[in-house]
Specification:
about 70 residues, globular, 5 strands
Length: about 70
């Protein structure tokens, strides 16, 4: 699934992404670390993996979107 970085706190390595429908979804340090990223800039397109129900998804991976 694709999203756009919305917020990011480098100290906690957590933030939020916006899904394509505009829904903000938070991610934690574990999801950020799983993607192997060192930094995330607001506005970057990212690829995310989620689990859980559609009305309360939990992001398990955040990585850069590549072609």
């Amino acid at each position: 699934m694709q999203a756009t970085a919305y917020t990011y706190d480098p100290e906690s390595r957590s933030g939020q992404v916006l899904l394509d429908d505009g829904t903000p979804v938070p991610f934690d340090a574990a999801a950020f670390d799983a993607g192997g990223l060192r930094l995330l800039r607001v506005g970057q397109r990212v690829r995310i993996e989620v689990e859980g129900p559609e009305d309360a998804p939990r992001i398990t991976l955040v990585t850069l979107q590549t072609l």
